[in-house]
Amino acid sequence: MAPREAGAACSYVKWQVRSVHVDPDGGQEGSPTEEVFDAVVVANGHYSQPRLPSIDGMEVWPRRQLHSHSYRVPDPFRDEAVLVVGCGESGLDIATELCGVAREVHIAAKSVEDATTPSPMMSKLLANHAGIRLHPPVDRLREDGTVAFADGSLAAADTVIYCTGYSYSIPFLDTAGLVTVDSSRVGPLYEHTFPPPLAPSLSFVGVPMQIFAPWFFQAQARWVALVLSGREALPPEEEMLRAVREDSSAREAAGVPAYRTHAIPAVDRYEYLEFVYRHSDLPRMEEWKVELFETSFTNAMEDREAFRDRDDGEYSESIREGLRRWRRLAGAQYEAALCRCCVR
Ligand SMILES: Cc1cc2nc3c(=O)[nH]c(=O)nc-3n(C[C@H](O)[C@H](O)[C@H](O)COP(=O)(O)OP(=O)(O)OC[C@H]3O[C@@H](n4cnc5c(N)ncnc54)[C@H](O)[C@@H]3O)c2cc1C
């Protein structure tokens, strides 16, 4: 997929798109077709291209290694000693699931100190599961099946599961270098959505992380639709580029690592709300829903095993009242839909 007329003024860029039909097994069906589009929205997700660390010995390690993307259920690891590399969302979820099935569960964190402070999540997990052992980073995978950690300690492992996240990958996009994609960043992107030199004919929906995904991406999609239909205008290219530079500087000043370039709340905790109100026509989220979202998030951070089991009684009165109203409304809508079906 490439601009048809490289160097043309952005509003006149047209996109030459070559596509092939792929069957569910990945095989190609038929011959490629070529079409020309005025605009392209890239929404290919960013949770499918595993990001693997580079660890001495991993190419020749004789035992099982996989990325969390291939993990489904704990059963295949029964009675094994499993090393989970990384303690983000996937690492903690998988380590918890493996407890009680695997013989030993080891977690290798980039930094033991960061993993245990300030969030109580890891400490709680370790306190609840004596079988989980937390280690510093892996130094080397040794040919005898043992793993050497950075502090010199060793552990034998049957399997290593890399819970080391995902890379951005847009192999089909050719912008002659105007947009670059690396494992942790797509850019330059004005507000994580429009590349200034090619806006608005090229846009990206779904690049941001650490947001309330469905609602946020809906807002992003609506913004793109508003711009492409001419109902909203983007600032001039120079202004968008300046905003991108300012955003990068703010992230750098706040010590945000490169792999969190598109983490929306990295600098301002409420930016995910402001983004939606700034750019989309979605109504403001009711206060009790914001409170519910924030409370659920905090609960999950504090106790990832039990947060789903909390009942309404543990929420504030405003959340409980909001839930009561929402259930009445959802119930009435359900009844109305049933009636419509019966009438037909
Ligand atoms: C383990 C895990 C748990 C998660 N849990 C939550 C959660 O609880 N709540 C939450 O809000 N979010 C969660 N997320 C994040 C959520 O999955 C994503 O935010 C969401 O799926 C993003 O939607 P998307 O449409 O942008 O991308 P995706 O859902 O990834 O969809 C992208 C689509 O594009 C297709 N595609 C890719 N390349 C091409 C191509 N070249 N041509 C044609 N099609 C292509 C893919 O096949 C896919 O169908 C989780 C993610 C993971 C990995």
State the separation between the terminal residues, measured CA to CA: 46 Å
Sheet of most strands: 5 strands, parallel
* Annotation field: number of helices: 8
Q: Numbering strands along the chain, what is their spatial order in the largest sheet?
A: 5-12-6-7-8
Shape: globular
> Uncertain regions: pLDDT < 50 for 5+ in a row?
6-10
Structural description of this entry:
The longest helix has 27 residues. The relative contact order is 0.11. The chain starts with a strand and ends with a helix. With 344 residues, the protein is an alpha/beta fold. Helix 4 packs parallel to helix 6 and helix 7 crosses helix 8. Helices cover 31% and strands 19% of the residues. The protein contains 8 helices and 15 strands. The chain folds into 3 domains: 160 residues, 3-Layer(bba) Sandwich (FAD/NAD(P)-binding domain); 99 residues, 3-Layer(bba) Sandwich (FAD/NAD(P)-binding domain), CATH 3.50.50; 57 residues, no CATH class. A hairpin with a 4-residue loop joins strand 10 and strand 11. The strands form 5 sheets. A 5-stranded parallel beta sheet has the order 5-12-6-7-8, covered by helices on one side. The protein has a 3-stranded antiparallel beta sheet with strand order 1-2-3, with no helix packed on it. Strands 9-10-11 form a 3-stranded antiparallel beta sheet, with no helix packed on it. The structure holds flavin-adenine dinucleotide. The site of flavin-adenine dinucleotide (FAD) has 11 residues, from helix 4.
